[in-house]
Design goal:
By secondary structure, the protein is of the alpha/beta class. It folds into four domains: 187 residues, P-loop containing nucleotide triphosphate hydrolases (Rossmann fold, 3-Layer(aba) Sandwich), CATH 3.40.50; 77 residues, Helix Hairpins; 151 residues, Histidine kinase-like ATPase, C-terminal domain (Heat Shock Protein 90, 2-Layer Sandwich), CATH 3.30.565; 120 residues, 3-Layer(aba) Sandwich (Rossmann fold), CATH 3.40.50. The protein has 18 helices and 19 strands. Helix 6 runs parallel beside helix 7, helix 9 runs antiparallel to helix 10 and helix 15 runs parallel beside helix 16.
């Protein structure tokens, strides 16, 4: 509120509404009510209306349907009959103040006159209670309406409480309204209006009207800006809420996918452990040549099945983004030589692989493990579709504009039709020419595409039907900070026999896996094996036995294998014991977690006898 002018007199006495009405007698009054608390507003309205009913006054209620319903229910609870409530004439404030598109002071005063005409003619005391909807109405029209109401009520037996929401009514409008209301009512008291003056009840002067219209425009601008800020804030909060929900859903989906992949890996590899384990053991025995041949077929078939499983699960992990990319400087020549050596160990006889001359000290930036996967996939693909006695050439070219190194793998195979070139890197797609001739999932090239993109590289293919294909990937060339050609060469452990007997504790719940491991370690020799079938038993046995090596399955019936690992590593008695994880969960995230939390090595099922021998020897050497 603005400060009082010199001509304004203020009655210092504060009254309640009931006290004021009692003091007024048959004299009428025009009261403005600026409320701040909704509950208090309803309480004051109910007291005003119930007192009117007790005095048998006529009551005009101009309010929302919700307020009318609430007051009616409370009157019924207070014991007022239907005849009592007939004293109330109700009209909605939306109909009263907004019967037209815009609020009109002239039309509203006409409505009011019509509603009160009979009461005025009979000299019946009338109480009016109404909440003015001023938020979307012209301030000038509201002020004109209240000015006309003050004229209309003067000298009549009418008490009018004109309510406004004080939280949303602008201060300058409150000041203007105080000039045409005799009393100011707040939530808890009522007092003389500080600006009321009978001489001010005339129509606006041109200067006043211009001033008020200017204030109204300024208020509309501020209101529009405020509404925009509120809307933007609401949108931002809604956006933040949406992003938070999306993040939670994505994290939940990622966790569920990880659990699913881990379980799938475990469930698919576990039966293969028995098949491959016993196949390896039987192949080491002196057996009939024909039986050996059949067992070899069983083992080779299981190897093929394992590769299919690994390819499908590997692609699913890559496609879901659940892999870590760790780029390094890779020297190209020794790296490609290592990839060729890997392929030649499993290659089809009669295919010639040629590495053409490459400039020395050429380095690219990529993840070595993932790049090895890309190159071996491309070499496998080239060998799969090459003709007998064909040639595969590996050569590199430099893009002078981007400084990218392109690794090309060219085969002399059946080639690819032009219409298939855009499809060849899609998951599960295989060329029409090769659909029925080669086994596989059709994921090898899709894995190449996904991994290359995740390392910010490029990939593609050039092909001509019947004349072979050239698949390529390219990565950024870098200047090395160091020179080393040893990091890509495999460490040769060798098949070293154990000289002394060692104690091995194997924590595994599946008996078939225990049987396979028992048979394998028996062939290795000098191993005193102790087996338990639960995590808790494994912890107790480790304290009691203090073995040389603990082999730990991560999927146990009572407690999680990682919990067993943490308990052993946190106890001074067992914290230095080497622990080898032996698990059918082959996900990279699980392997990294196990090694990070203290495992010395990680062996995946199905178990290779060569690998378990190598790992045990390596652990005992260190």
């Amino acid at each position: 509120m603005v400060e009082q002018t010199e001509n304004t007199t203020l009655d210092s006495e504060s009254l309640t509404l009931q006290q004021l009405i009692k003091r007024l007698g048959e004299k009428g009054s025009h009261i403005i009510y600026m409320f701040n608390e909704y509950d208090k507003y309803i309480e004051n309205a109910l007291a005003y209306i119930s007192e009117g009913i007790d005095n048998r006054d006529k009551i005009l209620l101009i309010e929302s349907q919700d307020v009318y319903t609430s007051i009616t229910k409370k009157l019924i609870q207070m014991g007022y009959s239907e005849d009592d409530r007939q004293l109330i004439k109700y009209t909605t404030n939306t109909d009263f103040y907004r019967s037209e598109e815009t609020f009109s002071a002239e039309k509203s005063i006409e409505q009011l006159s019509g509603l009160l005409k009979g009461n005025i003619e009979r000299g019946v005391r009338t109480r009016i209670w109404g909440q003015v909807l001023a938020s979307n109405s012209s301030i000038c029209e509201i002020r004109l309406y209240e000015n006309d109401c003050d004229h209309f009520f003067h000298g009549k037996n009418i008490v009018s409480v004109c309510a406004y929401n004080g939280l949303i009514t602008p201060a300058f409008l409150q000041n203007e309204l105080l000039k045409v209301h005799e009393y100011l009512m707040l939530d808890s008291q009522i007092e003389k209006s500080p600006f009321y003056n009978r001489n001010y009840m005339d129509r606006f002067s041109e200067f006043e009207l211009e001033k008020l219209q200017k204030l109204e425009k300024e208020n509309d601008l501020l209101k529009a800006k405020n509404e925009k800020l509120i809307l933007n804030s609401a949108r931002q909060k809604e956006r933040e809420k949406y992003l938070k929900l999306e993040k939670m859903n994505a994290e939940k989906a990622s966790r569920e996918k990880s659990v699913f992949l881990s379980q799938m890996s475990h469930d698919l590899r576990t039966p293969l452990n028995t098949i491959q384990g016993y196949s390896q053991i039987m192949l080491m025995d002196e057996i009939d040549k024909n039986i050996r041949k059949k067992i070899s077929k069983i083992y080779n078939a299981s190897e093929h099945l394992l590769k299919l499983i690994e390819e499908i699960l590997g692609f699913t992990v890559i496609d879901s983004g659940q892999i870590n990319i760790q780029k390094e400087e890779i020297e190209l020549i020794p790296f490609l030589e290592n990839c060729i050596e890997t392929i030649l160990e499993i290659s089809t006889p009669g295919i010639n692989i040629q590495l053409e001359e490459i400039e020395d000290n050429v380095y690219i930036e990529a993840d070595p493990f993932r790049l090895h996967q890309i190159i071996t996939n491309l070499l496998n693909n080239a060998m799969k579709y090459s003709r007998p006695n064909g040639t595969i050439k590996i050569y590199c070219t430099l893009d002078k504009h981007t400084e990218d190194i392109k690794i090309n793998i060219k085969d002399t195979g059946i080639g690819i039709e032009n219409e298939e070139l855009d499809l060849i890197f899609e998951p599960f797609y295989r060329s029409k020419n090769s659909m029925n001739n080669w086994e596989g999932t059709g994921l090898g090239l899709a894995i190449v595409a996904q991994l290359t993109k995740r390392m910010n590289g490029k990939y593609g293919v050039l092909a001509e039907e019947g004349k072979g294909s050239t698949f390529w990937v390219s990565f950024n060339r870098v200047k090395p900070n160091h020179y080393s050609d040893s990091e890509y060469k495999e460490t040769q452990i060798g098949s070293i026999s154990l000289q002394d007997t060692i104690k091995v504790l194997y924590v595994e719940d599946k008996q078939e896996n225990i049987d396979v491991m028992t048979s394998m370690l028996h062939l290795i020799g000098n191993v005193n094996l102790h087996c338990v079938t639960s995590g808790c038993a494994g912890i107790e046995k480790a304290f009691e036995l203090h073995p040389d090596i603990i082999m730990l399955d991560l999927s146990l019936p009572d407690i999680d294998g990682f919990e067993v690992l943490n308990k052993l590593k946190s106890n001074p008695i067992t914290q230095n014991l080497p622990i080898i994880a032996v698990s059918a969960d082959a996900l990279e995230t699980t392997i990294k977690k196990a090694l990070l939390e203290g495992c010395t090595a990680y062996v995946t099922k199905p178990i290779s006898m060569e690998e378990i021998n190598r790992v045990i020897v390596k652990v005992m050497r260190t």
